[in-house]
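Shipment paperwork, digital attachment
Item: protein structure file
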Amino acid sequence: MKITKLKIDFEKKTLVDIDFIINKSLALVGQSGSGKSLTLKALLNMLPSSMRCELKTNSDFKFIAGKTIGFVPQNPFTALSPLTKIRKQFFVDEDRIYELLKEVDLDVKLLDRFAPELSGGQLQRIVIAMALSFKPKLLLLDEPTTALDPKNTTLILELLKKLQKDLDFKILFVTHDISSAKSLCEDICIIKDGSVVEYGRMQDILVNPNAIYTKNLIEANFANRKFRK
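Attachment content:
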């Protein structure tokens, strides 16, 4: 799937003007304010009405959140209602809920518990299950491991890789964390101030970055250079 043009304007100022291809899994990486969140909101059709968005794609893919697009937010602790049992927060029938929990390796007994009773890893698995409810073609990930400890971060990334293999969806991973993106994505798109700085295969960019901006991001994400081998 190729986004041939994504342009976002606000009060005659261009905030984002990019294009990219999601072959299988693409990491959209940049510092805070680079345009990552605006891009994500544009794809989810969640931009404020004050912004003008132009979105063109080379396919007949319809950007309909919840149907063709699944969304995993950054913080699982705030994504769910603390006052409603987990079962009641799904919008599919019971059989489908059981299928989804099996896919994310959770016990169905958790359905009758409340969000504050679950761990961060369990909550993120619940949120991922919900995002997959309607068998989306594209899964948007908004820094899904930021609120998790290192152990759960690894487990969630491994789960996402397995789910993608089993269920055959594309991934757009929006993040500032290159190390996590490297674990999940084949390609990477570096953006700054709403424009593409570098784009290509993940390993190629990590081994041989061209832009100073990219080099600085890599330096900030890795304590050593073992990934270059």
